[in-house]
Design goal:
Blueprint (H helix, E strand, L loop, with lengths): L1 H6 L15 H9 L3 E6 L7 H12 L3 E7 L9 H7 L6 H5 L2 E4 L3 H20 L1 H4 L25 H9 L9 H23 L12 H26 L1 H10 L3 H37 L2 H4 L9 H45 L6 H12 L8 H48 L10 H7 L1 H13 L5 H8 L4 H14 L5 H12 L5 E3 L2 E3 L4 H25 L1
Parallel strand pairs: 1-2, 2-3
Antiparallel strand pairs: 4-5
Helix pairs in contact: 2-3, 8-12, 9-10, 9-14, 10-14, 10-16, 12-14, 12-18, 14-16, 16-22, 17-18
């Protein structure tokens, strides 16, 4: 009680032996408490008064926290004996509540205290107690300092990059949410403007219809990625995941580093591809053919066409790539969080997993003293978190399924292009345009390198779902390395985990290691088919 009082200032405690020890006083104490902590020692369930307090806790629907002594000198109980000796109407308390071991060693005791605090916050305590937990994760950060209070596992660079690219994280203000909505509107508006280029065949801005179609179709795809990501972030599923399902401090610190590296890579790609795209398009839109259209007796709409498209491309390209990479980065973070929830289930097996993490615990090669009740609580927690894991996969799968459906459709054109070979084709009307305008050659290289359908963009988006296979492999490897002091329980543990598929399987998209070569072949066909078309033109030039 003294330790919890120090950790939870402002929270009142009622201890039967220090208050009114009468039956009326004990009933009043239980009735007016939010949580009832039952400290398990030898003979506790045989005590008449302890039985009454447990029954009152059930009657008044209180949050029960079971804490067990681990030192034999202070009455360490046998769980089996406690359950056997417990009256039938109270036995279910042991099945429905996690038993938290109490360690007297200061280093291990801190783990026990944390689990007690979480046991309160998860079930009954509400926001005040929840703020006391150091393991609650938050998306938004208020400081650029590396020490932001323990809860902000997402680096400030990640937060600012996603916000600038139109991804409003949970906890974002009204201005950020308004900007997020504006980005989606800008993307759709720009897609419509790009479509208008199909009907403007005059001037140096036109190269061919195919590249225009690529750009036009890419806009709703990126919009879909952004919309699905924001919808998931706003869902109660994410709030429950962050507040109640994750207690993996080691993995949280690692995720902070991963998000920082991922953000740097995404920002670098966004800037590089934007400058590359500006070099490919802006000289065309700001060409004198459009700017001097009035003096050359051309339609005045051409001036408006050049200025509108040029200025739009200055704004849209960073948002175009940034929104895509920010969405993919957020998809990665959501996958990491759902996997951390699965790892949190292992805390039910042993408190060692909470303090040092599953990787460090496995590396010690020491057997874990786990009983059937621990395994039962692990199974209950794992099933709940696995359902969240798969639910997030299904929600995030929509843009990937649409993307791969289009990739399958593009194979017919790619195969036709390959059938034409790689020899020069001087009769192609695009050849003369490339000879006349240097920026169209830059545009060709830009599409070869960054196209969302045939270039690096296609490979990044297409292979993202296959990253889930890493988590499935990691879970399998680490589970096999966990040693039990009871071999029979280890067999049950592994057999239980074998029944859960962690791979990305949605409709026709089965992103598994076994099917990876098939999907890679599809990407290769589309990429080489587009390259073949470019080589034929380039050789003619």
């Amino acid at each position: 009680m003294m330790i919890l009082t120090a950790r939870l200032p402002g929270v009142s405690f009622w201890l039967d032996i220090e208050q009114d020890p009468t039956e009326k006083g004990m009933r009043h104490g239980v009735q007016n408490s939010k949580d009832v902590l039952i400290y398990l020692t030898t003979g506790l369930v045989e005590s008449k008064y302890c039985q009454m307090e447990m029954r009152w806790a059930l009657e008044f629907e209180k949050n029960i926290i079971l804490v067990m002594e681990t030192d034999e000198r202070h009455g360490k109980p046998s769980i089996d004996t406690l359950i056997t000796s417990c009256p039938p109407d109270l036995k279910h308390i042991f099945a429905e509540n996690v038993i938290i071991p109490w360690y007297r060693d200061p280093e291990f005791r801190e783990i026990s205290v944390e689990k007690i605090i979480r046991a309160r916050s998860v079930k009954k305590a509400g926001p005040t107690v929840l703020a006391e937990s150091t393991t609650k994760l938050k998306f938004m950060t208020r400081s650029k300092s590396s020490d932001s209070g323990g809860g902000d596992v997402f680096d400030w660079t990640f937060v600012y990059f996603t916000v600038l690219c139109g991804v409003a994280l949970p906890g974002a203000g009204k201005k950020t949410k308004a900007w997020s909505m504006a980005v989606r509107i800008i993307l759709l508006t720009c897609g419509c403007m790009c479509l208008s280029r199909v009907f403007t065949t005059e001037g140096p801005a036109l190269w061919d219809t195919g590249t225009i179609v690529q750009i036009v179709v890419a806009h709703p795809i990126i919009f879909l990625f952004l919309h699905v990501t924001l919808t998931i972030l706003k869902s109660p599923l994410i709030a429950d995941l962050l507040e109640n399902r994750i207690d993996a401090p080691v993995e949280a610190k690692l995720l902070r580093l991963k998000t920082r590296i991922g953000t740097c890579v995404a920002a670098l790609l966004t800037v590089s591809l934007s400058f590359w795209g500006w070099a490919a398009y802006l000289p065309a839109f700001f060409d004198m053919y459009y700017l001097e259209s009035a003096s050359q007796q051309r339609p005045a709409t051409l001036l408006l066409f050049g200025l509108a498209h040029g200025l739009t491309w200055v704004l849209i390209l960073p948002l175009f790539f940034g929104s895509l990479f920010a969405s993919l980065l957020m998809m990665f973070v959501l996958q990491e969080l759902s996997f951390m929830a699965l790892l949190t289930s292992f805390n039910e097996l042993s408190p060692e997993f909470t303090g040092t993490g599953i990787t460090a615990t496995v590396a010690t090669n020491s057997g874990l003293n786990i009983n059937e009740l621990d395994l039962y609580h692990f199974q209950v927690s794992f099933i709940e978190n696995w359902k969240i894991y798969k639910a997030l996969q299904w929600r995030a799968s929509i843009p990937f399924v649409v993307f791969w459906f289009l990739e399958f459709g593009l194979m017919s054109w790619s195969l036709w292009s390959l059938s034409q070979g790689f020899e020069a084709d001087p009769s192609d009307p695009r050849v003369d345009r490339l000879r006349e305008n240097w920026f169209l050659r830059v545009r060709l290289s830009w599409f070869l390198g960054s196209s969302l359908w045939f270039g690096a963009g296609a490979w990044i988006v297409a292979l993202t779902p296959f990253g889930v296979s890493y988590y499935a492999w990691r879970m399998e490897m680490q589970a096999k390395q966990i040693l039990f002091t009871h071999p029979g329980l280890r067999h049950s543990f592994l057999a239980f985990l074998a029944g859960f598929d962690l791979n990305f399987r949605v409709l026709f998209l089965h992103a598994t290691v076994r099917l990876l070569p098939l999907y890679v072949c599809i990407l290769i066909v589309n990429t080489v088919g587009f390259d073949a078309d470019a080589v034929r033109i380039w050789r003619a030039v």
